[in-house]
Amino acid sequence: MDQLNYKEQQEFQKILYTNLVDRCFNDCVNDFTSSKLSTKEDTCLNKCAEKFLKHSERVGSRFQEQNQILMNQMRGGK
Amino acid sequence: MDQLNYKEQQEFQKILYTNLVDRCFNDCVNDFTSSKLSTKEDTCLNKCAEKFLKHSERVGSRFQEQNQILMNQMRGGK
Amino acid sequence: MDQLNYKEQQEFQKILYTNLVDRCFNDCVNDFTSSKLSTKEDTCLNKCAEKFLKHSERVGSRFQEQNQILMNQMRGGK
Amino acid sequence: MSFLGFGGGAPQISSEQKIKAAEAELDMVTTMFNQLVDSCHKKCFDKNYADGELSKNESLCIDRCVAKYFDANVKVGESMQSLGRSGTLGQNLR
Amino acid sequence: MSFLGFGGGAPQISSEQKIKAAEAELDMVTTMFNQLVDSCHKKCFDKNYADGELSKNESLCIDRCVAKYFDANVKVGESMQSLGRSGTLGQNLR
Amino acid sequence: MSFLGFGGGAPQISSEQKIKAAEAELDMVTTMFNQLVDSCHKKCFDKNYADGELSKNESLCIDRCVAKYFDANVKVGESMQSLGRSGTLGQNLR
């Protein structure tokens, strides 16, 4: 139970991915006078995606550390 | 895989339905001095539901078109 | 079908629990100059959790009553 | 557990399908219940948690909020039916 | 139903796994579709429901919103690939 | 993967149930992780994406945000227990 298998990993990434798209779309795209992304929107999407990704990775690392601490406190893990 | 079966369609509609109810309730109902819907709230709910439904249908059509374009670009679909 | 089994109950509670944590964290914790909860945040979390729990229970009771009324209207239940 | 008439009108289905239908049903009731908890929490509370008890006003607000949510639910269901949109949306993704 | 290239690149899998993969696929398309409906609803409507019909401006806004959402999707997918982050995130939870 | 003590206290269960329990467990960790990512994103970033890198302040904020989220989690769990509410909520829907 300590490993995510292939399917679970894929699923995990898809959730993250759909959240990332949704978040960055909502923060970066606000002009609907055209159906093409403007240069400004395009740049914003790139930076937002990069930042969100790095953010998620950092949260993931801290999450693991905190989880480990907690499990050690409870009974040295399982 | 190109068709939603009966069960999947039902499920899809239920998600849409619960989102619709939640969205329209949040936008239209704001007075809690009574437990009955006012005429104004009632009208708002009807219009909101109708509009949200038409919105969803339009998004659905565009979604399909865009998805088709994308799949054609990738390799002519599967 | 009228009873939630053990697993379903657990699941139901977990959803409620994660929502409760998320809600109270968002409402109570806003200072990130420290990694320890302040006394104020701590108190807020306790009150928030207690209140959210009582809120959920009350909603649960009303939900059941309304559902019962509705099912009686439809055909006297199943 | 049947809710708002969902889960009743399905055609002849096997007992395995019945279990799956019941699970889907429960998923939806759970989703709706959580949305209800969330919406009425937004409508009836401010973010200032001075007290862990429900005040009388808050309790009243919750009761009315749930009642109105149910009415809104029925209302919206009727709107959908009168617009003849009970089978078209899922088909859009076919 | 394949969407944005997901679901294509899996290694050899059994037919039971294929069904599960297809279900996961559908889950994701459903999630994304609902986020899309929600985001474009926020972008294109105010909360004043005076009329049940879509106005011409609202219809135009919806069409552009969906087109831009798809472009954003592709864009973000490319960003992720160029950052070489296609397999690392799930592993964080190992 | 056990998280915050969930998943440990179940009565005797079969191996099929264990798999289901593990799947439910994973679902919850995934949900909570995504809420955490989302909450700390709201707390630590403005919507002005001038740079793709995390600044030093943002990184610090993330670290503290995760630590506090975990503490809040434990705190809330204790509140629930001290209120004796570990088995009553799901029963409301019976």
From TrEMBL, chains A, B, C:
UniProt subcellular location: Mitochondrion inner membrane
GO CC term, one of those recorded: mitochondrial inner membrane
An individual GO BP term: protein transport
Record-linked Gene3D superfamilies: Mitochondrial import inner membrane translocase subunit tim13 like domains (1.10.287.810)
Keywords: Chaperone, Disulfide bond, Membrane, Metal-binding, Mitochondrion, Mitochondrion inner membrane, Protein transport, Translocation, Transport, Zinc
Pfam family, one: zf-Tim10_DDP
Membrane topology: Peripheral membrane protein
Domain Tim10-like: 7-65
GO molecular function: metal ion binding
InterPro entries in the record: Mito_inner_translocase_sub, Tim10-like, Tim10-like_dom_sf
SUPFAM superfamilies: Tim10-like
Main function: Mitochondrial intermembrane chaperone that participates in the import and insertion of some multi-pass transmembrane proteins into the mitochondrial inner membrane. Also required for the transfer of beta-barrel precursors from the TOM complex to the sorting and assembly machinery (SAM complex) of the outer membrane. Acts as a chaperone-like protein that protects the hydrophobic precursors from aggregation and guide them through the mitochondrial intermembrane space.
PANTHER family, sorted: MITOCHONDRIAL IMPORT INNER MEMBRANE TRANSLOCASE SUBUNIT TIM9B
Domains: entry comment: The twin CX3C motif contains 4 conserved Cys residues that form 2 disulfide bonds in the mitochondrial intermembrane space.
Membership in a protein family: Belongs to the small Tim family.
Assembly description: Heterohexamer.
Name of the protein: Mitochondrial import inner membrane translocase subunit
Annotated organism of origin: Ogataea philodendri
UniProtKB/TrEMBL annotation, chains D, E, F:
Subcellular localization(s) per the UniProt record: Mitochondrion inner membrane
Gene3D superfamilies according to UniProt: Mitochondrial import inner membrane translocase subunit tim13 like domains (1.10.287.810)
Alphabetical GO biological process terms: protein insertion into mitochondrial inner membrane; protein transport
Function: Mitochondrial intermembrane chaperone that participates in the import and insertion of some multi-pass transmembrane proteins into the mitochondrial inner membrane. Also required for the transfer of beta-barrel precursors from the TOM complex to the sorting and assembly machinery (SAM complex) of the outer membrane. Acts as a chaperone-like protein that protects the hydrophobic precursors from aggregation and guide them through the mitochondrial intermembrane space.
Protein name: Mitochondrial import inner membrane translocase subunit
Comment, domains: The twin CX3C motif contains 4 conserved Cys residues that form 2 disulfide bonds in the mitochondrial intermembrane space.
GO cellular component, one term: mitochondrial inner membrane
Main localization of the protein described in the UniProt heading: mitochondrion
Keyword Cell membrane: no
Organism: Ogataea philodendri
PANTHER family: MITOCHONDRIAL IMPORT INNER MEMBRANE TRANSLOCASE SUBUNIT TIM10 (PTHR11038)
UniProt cross-references to InterPro entries, sorted A to Z: Tim10-like, Tim10-like_dom_sf
Membrane topology category: Peripheral membrane protein
Keywords annotated in UniProt: Chaperone, Disulfide bond, Membrane, Metal-binding, Mitochondrion, Mitochondrion inner membrane, Protein transport, Translocation, Transport, Zinc
GO molecular-function term, one example from the UniProt record: metal ion binding
Quaternary state and interactors: Heterohexamer.
Top-level taxon of the source organism: Eukaryota
Homology family: Belongs to the small Tim family.
Taxonomic path: Eukaryota, Fungi, Dikarya, Ascomycota, Saccharomycotina
Name of one Pfam family that matches: zf-Tim10_DDP
Domain Tim10-like: 19-82
